[in-house]
Amino acid sequence: MSTTTRRQFIKLSIAATAAMSIQDIFAEESVKTLRILILGGTGFTGPFQVKYALSRGHKITVFNRGKTHPGELPKEVEQLIGDRNGQLEALKGKQWDVCIDNPTTLPAWIRDAAQILKGNVGRYVFISTISVYADTSTGPDENAPLAKYEGADPFKETLEAMKASGYKTYGPLKALSEQETQKWFPDKSVIIRPGLIVGPRDETDRFTYWPVRIDRGGEVLAPGNPSDPVQFIDGRDLAEWSIRMAEKGETGIYNATGPARELGIGGMLDGIKGALNSNATLTWADAEFLKQQKVEAWSDMPVWAGDELGLSLANISRALAKGLTFRALGDTARDTVAWFKAQKPERQAKMRAGLTLEREAEVLAALHKAAK
To answer: Do residues 232 and 207 lie in contact, with contact meaning Cβ atoms separated by under 8 Å?
Structure first.
């Protein structure tokens, strides 16, 4: 083989290897067929878990109210109808290798399900949240202190009361739900603490705002300093990793957000812009100016944590060591825009996070005036 031919062969081999996605590699693994119960399964990440698990040969049962995206489940999936608020009869008398609990916010939901499932499931995977930490001023690892519930009886809490509190009890109730999981399933539980979950199917628009706005082009208001850290995870990456953790019989607690290396808000927005081939121009406004304009981090400027940058510095080394992987930011951005454009016109007309175009224009005008 000539030097030139050999060089071409190496280049082609490298290109072919790079073209293999992480999902392709994992798909080639030989895995034992599991009977998996998914509590929820029709919301945001659940359908991705279902699809990925089926592709790997598992048998799937979902338990939910049957009200979210009815008729969307693949025909191979068994659906049990019930409600976490006391209507759990459909779970009785059955056995599964793994239960994945997606929607739980209230510790009573864990307790009530566990009373039926204990001894009937081999492993319990609880999807929690990074919001369980008491102090997020610095990037927490899994051993950091958890938020404490200050109410009367957490087992009498309701979703309505949590909402009425402005979600102040969300983190503490999730922390108590984790404790219930460990109480009922000692040495058999996996607790996954995601950060901001993003991508197709996300109804909050807390990341979607950026690719949709950048795709429209023009001058875009960008928050803070381009180096301010951000963290998020594509719902598909979270879903697929949770299935692989179940397959491996893992236990323990894991922060699950990304990317693998620290990313600034500037890198995120530039990455989205490049992926969408957008003509948008980013105009940066510092945190103090945004406060003066009453533009809030996280809600008005999604993903960006403002003064609470520790929210975007969670330590994920433990999850990385267990095989958590991330698809490219560009893939998430393109897929998110495509999903959003497929929604009904009335859904597209009003985003659920970020600034309206009119409000953004006002803030940009004030910024340019202040710079004169």
So the answer is: yes
Runs of H (alpha helix) within 190-234: 209-216
Per-residue pLDDT, 19: 39
> Shortest CA distance to 335 belongs to which of 232, 200, 198?
200
Backbone angle region of 83, left / alpha / beta, with phi > 0 → left and psi within -120 to 50 → alpha: beta
Closest CA to 303 of 215, 219, 211, 241: 211
Residue in the structure block whose two tokens are 């083989």: 1
Average pLDDT over residues 134-159: 92
Q: In the β-sheet with 229-234, what is the strand arrangement from edge to edge?
A: 197-198, 229-234, 258-264
CA distance 304 to 222: 10
Residue where the block lists tokens 């397959």: 247
Sign of CA dihedral 171, 177, 182, 183: positive
Query: Cis omega before residue 259 (within 30°)?
Result: yes
pLDDT at 46 over 90: yes
Task: Report the run of H or E that residue 80 belongs to, with start and end.
Answer: strand 78-81
| Tokens found for residue 337 | 């825009």
Q: What is the pLDDT, as a whole number, of residue 18?
A: 38
How confident is the model over 11-27, as pLDDT tens digits?
A: 333 333 333 344 444 55
- pLDDT at res. 29: 61
Kindly report the number of other CB atoms within 10 A of residue 281's CB atom.
11
Contacts from 58-67 at CB under 8 Å and sequence distance 24+? Answer: 58/33, 58/34, 58/243, 59/33, 59/34, 59/35, 60/36, 61/35, 61/36, 61/37, 61/94, 61/96, 62/37, 62/38, 63/37, 63/38, 63/39, 63/90, 63/91, 64/39, 64/40
Query: Strand pairing of 121-127 and 258-264?
Result: unpaired
* Across 32-46, average pLDDT: 96
Residue 249 contacts by C-beta under 8 Å, 6 or more apart in sequence?
123
Are the CB atoms for 198 and 257 separated by under 8 Å? Answer: no
The dihedral built from the CA positions of residue 314, 43, 81 and 154, taken in this order, carries a sign that is positive
- pLDDT at position 26 is 53
DSSP state of 83: B
